[in-house]
């Protein structure tokens, strides 16, 4: 989604940024100048950020993951009482497993799908009683007992135990080993195989590639609340085409025959079963005669007597909710959502104690919450307005309150901020804000909906985490992350860039943008611009939140940094998102041209020195922007780009583009290779040489075409890296390469054509 250049040395990278500051201030290099060497070093400039924060089921303890001070890439499990008392370390990953060794390909791929780049305790789970916390480390499983703080090792095998869970009532631990599901009785230590024929193309209880990568479903089995049943999927990958993929590392290369379902081709066949632990019987769930469907979501009713299954059609225009009898596997469709483009998948399903359930829908043009009766009929709409619900966060059934996050203020959409709201389950009362306006809040409610863990950040505040009562009353800090003299970022605070927000209008839609300016900004001067871009379906990048330090690297180097959320990007209205339907690379680029023209009208912008940079979909966009005459870019950095959507996977691509057989014109129009004769400037292309998501072939198509046309370009390849570049040393090299390229194309060392 990238002529080979050597990386900057540490000294030259430092002089690049320090020299830029010197030119602006006329003084010697300032120690407050942020350098790449400091950004990619420990301790992290983000400060002590809590990850994966959850409340114990009884609300008395908060568990969270924290990076080690000696290695930001290793996580330990911590806990803090919700009352008085300091946080304590529950599980020290390195003490238990000093050397994690190599993970299996299945677990490595699973973590890649989940975007887990750290090691140590990377995930954990509670039982519903709050007695235990289960944590996999290095392929084995450890159980922390809350009562005495003890930690015991449950497995020590050659194979990896993956997707481990504590059963709801805390009597069992379950996991997948060698493609089969196993249940371990905690009282006796006895392991019981639930399946025994997982091998080759057959896998039990594991989410298939498409579900993990594109459907935000990371598991393939589900305990019933009463521990009687386990619903589990069976995946047969035999229909999926084998794509030989070279996994190239620094030590050599391996050919991996990856089953990769490309757009328009066959998916894996996924079936759903229910195992009755009481009788030992296993029944197959009737998902219908058509096997070319997606198993989207699986949930249990509060009493465990009904299994709810969301079944999505291959074209993604229909989503059925089935109510299934777990003893027979027979089910019926009780609710259906339809859309002319696609039906969005969410986690906004909540089964209530009285048999009713909450489910979200975009049927009125915005994502909102609806209350359904046990038979699936809509009782009433819970939320409404010209703004979308971001996520259903919790329900307090005693008070009849529903909690959700949204980007809304005073009943109007506000894309640059996010708050937690509450609203009545039974009526159409106006939502009440639980958290203050102005920044970006996230929330994780406890099961009864009486408290939540709130994460907050804004332009002046690094990410902090606190515990709050359901009405928003502050209880205690989990990680205050105060920006003071003790904070690792404190030496660089004085040179943080000024940021401003604004809007542009495109085809009747309001687009939000943000701009960061270099320190000592002088509006009478002209500055080069770096347009950071993602551009594709996502949560959007323009928000009132703490900037990543890499943005400050760019402003320190003298660049104005600009980002626009174009149509199709961000959780906005259905119409806003569906603007790119069958037209990827068209409306997004139109909007970026609009932004480029607006930038050229600003007196402080040097329109002969504009560049774009992006990764993944952003890499696709950077290539399209560099080949769009209306952009007239001087250069672009494209990382891991999709270059032909027919090479990408089914669920993601077909959602927006349909099948190649049905939308040949749209696929041809979005093919980057056919646009390379329109390059307006210099290209830097980067790609991981073990990428199993955006296959390396996407990059080699561009490399081959440019070489065939004798077009010079620059390239940086990453042996052993998948869809992201991991680890401080490689990321430091990556950003030295970025800064070197930008300096030579739009910066102080720019060579005239």
CATH level 3 topology of the largest domain:
Rossmann fold
Report the radius of gyration as a whole number of Å. 26 Å
What is the domain total for the residues?
4
Classify the secondary structure makeup into a structural class. Answer: alpha+beta
Count the helices. How many?
13
Beta content: 35-45%
State the separation between the terminal residues, measured CA to CA: 25 Å
Query: Level of helix content?
Result: 10-25%
Global geometry: globular
**Averaged pLDDT, please?**
92
CATH evolutionary superfamily of the largest domain: Alpha/Beta hydrolase fold, catalytic domain
Structure summary, number of beta strands? 46
Largest sheet geometry: 8 strands, mixed
Task: Based on the coordinates given, report the CATH architecture of the largest domain.
Answer: 3-Layer(aba) Sandwich
- The side-by-side strand order for the widest beta sheet comes to 39-40-42-41-43-44-45-46
Provide the CATH top-level class of the largest domain.
Answer: Alpha Beta
Low-confidence stretches: 1-16, 18-28
Could you characterize what this model shows?
The chain has 753 residues and is of the alpha+beta class. It has 4 domains: 10-30 and 496-745, Alpha/Beta hydrolase fold, catalytic domain (Rossmann fold, 3-Layer(aba) Sandwich); 48-155, Single Sheet (N-terminal domain of TfIIb), CATH 2.20.25; 194-345, Dipeptidylpeptidase IV, N-terminal domain (Methanol Dehydrogenase, Chain A, 8 Propeller), CATH 2.140.10; 346-484, TolB, C-terminal domain (Neuraminidase, 6 Propeller), CATH 2.120.10.30. 16% of the residues lie in helices and 36% in strands. It contains 13 helices and 46 strands. Strand 29 and strand 30 (401-406) form a beta hairpin. It is globular. The two termini are 25 Å apart. The relative contact order is 0.11. The model is unreliable at 1-16 and 18-28 (pLDDT under 50).
